[in-house]
Design goal:
mainly alpha; single chain; two-stranded antiparallel sheet; 323 residues
């Protein structure tokens, strides 16, 4: 069976599902695709080469098919300890993940033990930690040139230029990591996710009720199945004991369903309208709640960054020319 979706792998095959996710993350779907990637990567091929053959174009299809059969078997395994060691090393190389991750000992796939440890302790993803550790910088030299043009920069700092100021300006580069560090230290660390989740939940509620409201506007001309009809009647009567469904001609509900289709459709429509139509009035209300949450999120972000910009102007590395 061709494996193109996670659902194609049985839930008990924990290793197989992990292998599929690793491939999916880099756009390699299924055993055949992974086999092709292992073949293409020379380091991986040296590990999984069928019969320890050297790579020749004349054997390409044969080799890939042979590797694919092994990978297919691995997709059905529950843990990595049943996978041949050479294939585990090849998977670790191909997907840039640690063997501990493949064996299920840790939840972070990064091959860097330091990153894996930080990730486990902080909850940050390995990708996020790697970005923070890159120590990227933002250059503001173009703005410094404008400041200098209008005489807003001193000709020389009091302690003279340092070696990094060879462009003739004060600090031109600022740390990306420090920006995020300051943000985490601020009250936005808890306020921002709280406001965002409230906004997201408000949108989910609005979108869901809107779907229900559209359903309520429909007319139901088709006869519902007996299971659906009896379920709606049962639900109605459990919540409206003082308003039971009035039967016709002394028939039971099942007898009425079998012999009176127009009556069934009428009862079904009335029950559903009563149950769903209140949602129509709720659509505008939930939309207002959503935009209220979105507005609060916007204000939270804007207030923080505007205040931060004012503080940077007064206390930052550049001379302050405000009042």
């Amino acid at each position: 069976m061709a494996i193109k979706r996670l659902e194609d792998i049985r839930e008990e095959a924990v290793f197989g599902r992990k292998l599929f996710k690793l491939g999916r993350d880099v756009g390699i779907l299924g055993p055949a695709a992974i086999a092709g990637a292992l073949y293409k990567n020379d380091e991986c091929y040296n590990l999984v080469s069928p019969g320890n053959r050297k790579k020749y174009d004349s054997n390409k299809t044969k080799d890939i098919n042979s590797i694919a059969r092994r990978v297919q078997d691995h997709f059905d395994l529950e843990n990595g300890y049943d996978v041949q060691g050479n294939y585990m090393l090849a998977y670790s190389t191909l997907f840039n993940c640690s063997l501990d991750y493949l064996y299920g000992k840790i939840e972070v796939k990064s091959p860097d033990a330091t990153i894996a440890d930080i990730s486990e302790k902080t909850g940050l993803s390995a990708t996020a930690i790697t970005k923070l550790m890159k120590k990227d910088e933002v250059c503001i030299e173009e703005y410094l040139e404008t400041l200098n043009k209008y005489g807003l920069l001193e000709t020389m700092p009091a302690d003279g230029w340092d070696e990094e100021d060879d462009d003739g300006y004060y600090e031109s580069y600022f740390s990306v990591s420090k920006f995020w560090s300051d943000l985490i230290e601020s009250k936005l660390f808890s306020e921002l996710p709280e406001d965002w989740y409230r906004m997201a939940c408000a949108k989910y509620t609005h979108d869901g009720i809107k779907v229900v409201a559209e359903e309520a506007k429909r007319t139901w001309d088709e006869l519902p199945t007996w299971e659906v009809f009896s379920s709606w009647v049962s639900t109605w009567e459990s919540f409206h004991e003082d308003r039971p469904i009035h039967m016709i001609y002394g028939k039971t509900l099942k007898e009425a369903y079998d012999t009176e289709p127009e009556w069934v459709k009428q009862v079904y429509r009335e029950i559903r309208y009563e149950h769903l139509y209140s949602s129509v009035d709720k659509v505008d209300e939930t939309e207002t709640i959503y935009w209220g949450c979105a507005g609060k999120l916007d204000r939270t972000i804007q207030n923080y960054f505007h205040s931060l910009a004012d503080k940077w102007c007064k206390e930052g590395p550049l001379p302050y020319y405000g009042e």
